[in-house]
């Protein structure tokens, strides 16, 4: 579970932070207070369309691929053999699907 949450914390927050910031800025645009658009309707419309499409057209499959790769890296790093020869060797590296099943 720890590896799963670490992978999530690595991949997901940048989009979440962007979404919060973008929502605040969209509010400013709707209220004609955003410094880049002010009361210029064409600029407002263009900005809001770009923000909306960034949300609507987000590549979820790519995010899932990144999460799977990061999860595999997290699992792999936990299964690395220890350097102390007196300790038992780590088990063979697991595939991501095997790690999820356990």
Care to give the gist of this entry?
Belongs to the paxM FAD-dependent monooxygenase family. It contains 5 helices and no strands. It is mostly helical.
Structure commentary:
This protein is mainly α and 102 residues long. 68% of the residues lie in helices and 0% in strands. It has one domain (2-78, 89-101). The protein contains five helices and no strands. The chain starts with a helix and ends with a helix. The relative contact order is 0.13. This is Salicylate hydroxylase. Keywords: FAD, Flavoprotein, Oxidoreductase.
- Give average pLDDT, whole number: 84
Terminal CA distance: 10 Å
- Indicate the low-confidence ranges by residue numbers: 87-95
Main sheet properties: none
- Radius of gyration from the alpha-carbon trace, in angstroms: 22 Å
Into which percentage range does the β-strand content fall?
A: under 5%
Classify the oligomer.
single chain
Count of alpha and pi helical runs: 5
Assign the structural class, choosing from mainly alpha, mainly beta, alpha/beta, alpha+beta, or little secondary structure.
mainly alpha
Shape: elongated
Kindly give the count of domains: 1
Cofactor: FAD
Protein name: Salicylate hydroxylase
InterPro entries: FAD_monoxygenase
Organism: Colletotrichum lupini
